[in-house]
Amino acid sequence: MADLFANASKNDDYDASNIEVLEGLEPVRHRPGMYIGGTDDRALHHLAAEILDNSMDEAVAGHATRIEISLDAADRLTIRDNGRGMPTEKHPKFHDKSAVEVIMTTLHAGGKFSGKAYSTSGGLHGVGASVVNALSSELTVKIARDKKLYQQQFSRGKPQGPLCEIGAAPNRRGTSVSFTPDSEIFGADAKFRPTTLFRMARSKAYLFAGVEIRWRCDSSLLATGDLTPAETSLHYPGGLADYLTDATTNNTLMISTPFAEIAELDGQKFEWAITWLGPGEDGFFQSYCNTVPTPSGGTHETGFRQAIVRGLRSFGDLVGNKKAADITADDALAGGGYNALHFFTKPSISGPD
After folding, report:
1. b or e along 25-58 (b: 16 or more beta carbons within 10 Å of the residue's beta carbon)?
2. Which region among 133-147, 199-213, 247-261 has the lowest average model confidence (pLDDT)?
3. What whole-number distance in Å separates Cα of residue 184 and Cα of residue 111?
4. Are 99 and 106 in contact (CB under 8 A)?
5. How far apart are CA 223 and CA 210, in angstroms?
6. Fold observed for domain 240-349
7. CATH 3.30.565.10: does it fit domain 26-234?
8. Domain ranges in the chain?
């Protein structure tokens, strides 16, 4: 009996030696769910969203007009933009590392905290790129900046060498990130799905009219009957109005053209579009903040709903319809096909994160 208590006491020891300190990107690999919500198919595709969001931030900031997304047969995804390119000089706080290496290997390192480099941004600020790096078996980043081309390679978040200048880039600029998700994290059978990636790319093109997204996918990855194109260019000058028109092509509509507007208030930008479907049609509501979906809603959705109801009530009063005063949000939006709203806000208060 004495030996039993002695063993129990030994097993229950809890002292300083039990405290683990995870360094660098080790926490991400130990607990990926804390950063991307798990290791399932949705989490796998979240990696693509994080890199794409970085390129979209360059576009929204006015520094990029084109984004290229390419998926090859080996499940390697490349996302490239023609923006400013990641800074390549040595970081002032880490004198032995380039800014690129700091961005790719350090959690909470990025240019989106102060609002000086980006007035708006989406994604996991200062976390996204490094998390993707940590959860990729291999990742290569290329930067065209100041007429020079730089490259650095990583494996599971660790640099495989320093950032190196590999050539001239007199007519090119921007950042390219190529990566393969780590099968140790996501499983040997985990693969990117072209349909999901294409839908993601198309939604981003709708959400920001100033960008062209060029899509390419190895045709061997497309299943028979899959309507996802192997290659195409996505550009929608009408923004949300274009999206709503395309999304309701096969529906009966009560109005021929969506109501749409882009407005700015206190340095923040709002874009919305709305139409009404015919009787018996199923409506939908979608909202975004800084090109990132907000499926849980928020004050931007609440305010939009209230504004639509208020507008309909005011119109009813104007034309002498006394029953309009009793209109509710359910009355106004039931059966409506509406895409609202896209809300650009500053990084420090962007809800999706």
Report:
1. beebbeebeebbeebeeebbbbbbbbbbbbbbbb
2. 247-261
3. 30
4. no
5. 32
6. Ribosomal Protein S5; domain 2 (3.30.230)
7. yes
8. 26-234, 240-349
Top pLDDT among 251 and 232 is at: 232
**Biggest CA-to-CA distance, the chain:** 91
Q: 3-state secondary structure string, 28-62?
A: HHHCCHHHHCCCCHHHHHHHHHHHHHHHHHHHHCC
H or E element: which one contains 317?
Answer: helix 299-318
pLDDT value, residue 118: 41
Pairwise CA distance, residues 30 & 109, whole Å? 20
Q: CA-to-CA distance for 105 and 97, rounded, in angstroms?
A: 10
pTM: 0.81
What average pLDDT score do residues 8-12 get? 56
CB 209 within 8 A of CB 236: yes
Q: How far apart (Å, rounded) are the C-alpha atoms in residues 108 and 124?
A: 9
The amino acid that residue 18 corresponds to is N
3-state secondary structure of 310: helix
Other CB atoms within a 10 A radius of the CB of residue 129 amount to 27
State how far the Cα of 235 lies from the Cα of 202, in Å rounded to an integer.
8
Q: If you average pLDDT over residues 131-144, what whole number do you get?
A: 97
CA 165 vs CA 67, 145, 146, 157, 168: distances in Å:
23, 10, 11, 21, 8
Q: Other CB atoms closer than 10 Å to residue 63's CB: what's the count?
A: 17
**Gap between the Cα atoms of 122 and 346, Å rounded:** 9
Beta carbons of 104 and 136 less than 8 angstroms apart: no
Instruction: For 18-67, write each residue's pLDDT tens digit.
Output: 665 556 788 899 999 999 999 999 999 999 999 999 999 899 889 999 99
Q: Inform me whether the pLDDT recorded for 305 exceeds 90.
A: no
